[in-house]
Amino acid sequence: MLFLLFSIFASGGMAITLRLAEQHGCNMKALTTANYVVAALASWMLMQNKAVLPVPGLRLTFALGAFNGLLYLATLLLYQVNIARNGTPLTVSFARLGVLVPTLLSLVIFRECPRSLQWLGVVLAAAAIVIINYDPAARKEKARHKLWLVVLFCVGGSADMMSKVFEAVANHSQSGLFLFYTFSAALLLSLLRLTAGKQRIGISDCLWGVAVGVLNYASTMFLLQAILRMPAFYAYPVYSAGTIIFVNLVNFVFLREPITRRQYCGMAIIAAALVCLNAA
User: Fold this and answer.
1) Chain segment 259-279, per-residue pLDDT in tens
2) Fewer CB near the last or first residue (10 Å), C or N of the chain?
3) What is the pTM of this model?
4) Is the dihedral angle over the CA atoms 262, 263, 264, 266 positive or is it negative?
5) What is the 3-state secondary structure (H, E, C) of 208-254?
6) What's the burial of 201, exposed, middle or buried (CB within 10 Å: 0-12/13-18/19+)?
């Protein structure tokens, strides 16, 4: 449970840092690249065995990590495409609801079997995610390219799902390598994207990227460790809803943004879901 809490704090911190960086006019392509540089370096530095070549015995981990890195960057690009084509409210809602993909697949494909009360907890947690992410503005926003929203939902959910796939089919002692391959693949792809443009890169862009990279690595690493220790049907919805609640509370305390009745309702449902999910 401690790993899950740490992943929530790190993920929430990353979301807040990204928001502040955008408000300061940061070059987001440079930030993204710097973020993956830091995350890849952190993964490598914290590995006991520094050998990273995909020799026999490591190839499955390499394949999973490289594919995960591709999904990471694809999710980011799809997020930007959807904001341009479908507006921010719809994009944010579909992106956050993507966590329902690994939650449901862990039940169907990996045959995780919640107890009766835990089933109720899963349903309540899913309902809370929908309620918290519901944006009245999204109803007024006409989706001009609905297919892109569906693709974002599926790709983002698949990226979340890769931690469970690694837990199910790979050697758990190679979790550090999995993270290294993930962030390295995303780094290579983001470098190609950065060099294709001619935007100016400043020191502040890199510094924001370092902050995001530390939090990104921590969030991904702690979530993976949580998945290795607890059922995915429990970890994913709690991680998603917990991150949203953490961000809302920080915004309320430090940025003086009010918490809506809908968000209060979602928090209450999450509390009930946690009680049910922790039922023996």
Assistant:
1) 778 878 888 888 888 788 776
2) C
3) 0.85
4) positive
5) HHHHHHHHHHHHHHHHHHHHCCCCHHHHHHHHHHHHHHHHHHHHHHH
6) middle
